[in-house]
Amino acid sequence: MATIFTALQDVQARIDTACTAVGRNPAEVKLLAVSKTFPASDIHALYQFGQRAFGENYVQELVNKCQILAECKDIEWHFIGPLQSNKTRLVAENAAWVHTIDRLKIAERLSAQRPQHLPPLNICLQVNVSGEASKSGLAADEVIALAEQVVKLPQLCLRGLMCIPESSHDSTILAQQFSVLVQLKAQLQARGLTLDTLSMGMSNDLESAIAAGSTLLRVGSAIFGLRHYSS
User: Where is the Alanine racemase N-terminal domain (predicted)?
Assistant: First the structure.
């Protein structure tokens, strides 16, 4: 597992360098290791190296890994994929975070199905900052209304906003799209919502995301390598 450990160290070094370049404290930026399609053994290896937050895109894969790694009590599971209403209970029972809320119905189901003995489920609203039809998420002008509804739901804690910008190597385009999330967070805070999370930045654009103000990076391929898909 030396390779995966080296990759994790390399990503952490990139985060440190990017933070230093813009005068930020690296402690302000959390690394979420996106482990979708990779085996629980890889997660356990990174856990032993000190990584605690892991992201999954598929509900059944999340549940399976939670069961396999049940002895790792302080793993923080983040669900970062599209969520259908018939799968909300499994996510409510197993995840600590959900990043992809863009409908009130899904938030209401998660709230109702979150076990009372667990802490509130941390929620991010997904915003379509690029305007691409292929991307999920709220339009910018829909965010405030949904946020003010979600924040009232019991057993949920609205933490912030998430986005997936268009795939681009143009730092100007990325900065513009990340700034949409930054501005929306400021608008929500001005309305009295106590948000602390901007979930933005992945393997290829984490430097731009850090420069824009990201507090949570979702990094997969730079740590785990190419995805493994079953036939």
Answer: 11-227
User: Which domain does 138 fall in, by range?
Assistant: 2-20+27-224
Q: What does DSSP say about strands 76-79 and 97-101: parallel, antiparallel, or unpaired?
A: parallel
C-alpha to C-alpha distance for 10 and 69, rounded to whole angstroms: 25
| pTM as predicted | 0.95
Rounded Cα gap, residues 87 and 71, in angstroms: 24
Residue-wise pLDDT tens digits, 188-198: 999 999 999 99
Report the domain count for the chain. Answer: 1
Backbone dihedral angles phi then psi of residue 187, each to the nearest 5 degrees: -65, -40
Cβ(225)–Cβ(7) under 8 Å? Answer: yes
Q: Is residue 229 part of a domain?
A: no
Angle CA(12)–CA(18)–CA(19) in degrees, nearest 5?
90
pLDDT tens, residue by residue, 77-117: 999 999 999 999 999 999 999 999 999 999 999 999 999 99
| Identity of residue 4 | I
Question: How many CB atoms sit inside 10 A of residue 106's CB?
Answer: 21
Does 15 map to a domain? Answer: yes
pLDDT at 68 over 80: yes
Question: Cα-atom radius of gyration of the chain, to the nearest Å?
Answer: 17
Through-space distance between the first and last CA atoms of the chain, rounded to whole angstroms: 25
Tokens 């309305």 belong to: 191
